[in-house]
Design brief:
The protein contains four helices and nine strands. It is of the alpha+beta class. The chain has one domain: Aminopeptidase, CATH 3.40.630. Strands 1, 2, 3, 4, 5, 6, 7, 8 and 9 form a nine-stranded mixed β-sheet that branches. Helix 1 packs antiparallel against helix 2. The longest helix has 15 residues.
Length: 170
């Protein structure tokens, strides 16, 4: 498995992969179609894609992860939103998502990012060091599902409300 930055040539395959990964996702309303592939396209259009990686297996894109800047209390920050992370359904539960998460967090750490946030399942993301924190919230989201991970020893946990790029709003 090779983890590398996405390229423009990868975009069609990434769109299909993300759509397939989120089709019939348990957190979507029954019968709702995925929109995560549209979020990724809008992040690119908004020049808000800070980091995007693919997992390539035998010249096939098997996974994708995106990171984008977040604002805190309406101000730019050195914190980044992780997501979406997607793996081809036929290749899920093989550690590809974990490899993408680890690689992305390593790159953000090397870039001196203060931290990363995500909206997700605590049971899954705690293994990567993500935890809910009472000082930082995402409006309209139960606190236990908005998780944060400082990426430097000196990173202060921000206090207030976080906001993702407008690409997430549709």
């Amino acid at each position: 498995m090779k983890i590398r930055p996405e390229t423009a040539q990868d975009y069609p395959a990434i769109e299909k992969l993300i759509y397939a990964a989120f089709l019939n996702h348990p957190h979507h309303a029954p019968g709702a179609l995925p929109t995560e592939h549209l979020i990724v396209a809008r992040l690119r259009q908004n020049n808000a894609m800070s980091l995007a990686l693919v997992a390539e297996d035998q010249n096939q894109i098997a996974g994708h992860i995106a990171f984008s800047p977040i604002s805190i209390n309406g101000q730019p920050s050195q914190w980044y939103g992780l997501g979406p992370v997607s793996v081809l359904p036929s290749m899920q539960n093989q550690g590809i998502g974990s490899q993408l998460i680890h690689a992305g967090l390593e790159i953000l750490t090397a870039r001196k990012a203060a931290g990363a946030v995500l909206l997700g399942e605590p049971e899954y993301y705690q293994r990567f060091g993500f935890q809910a924190h009472p000082h930082l919230a995402l409006p309209g989201v139960p606190a236990e599902y908005f998780l944060i991970k400082p990426l430097t020893d000196s990173a202060d946990i921000p206090q207030g409300t976080a906001a993702y790029d407008a690409a997430f709003a549709g």
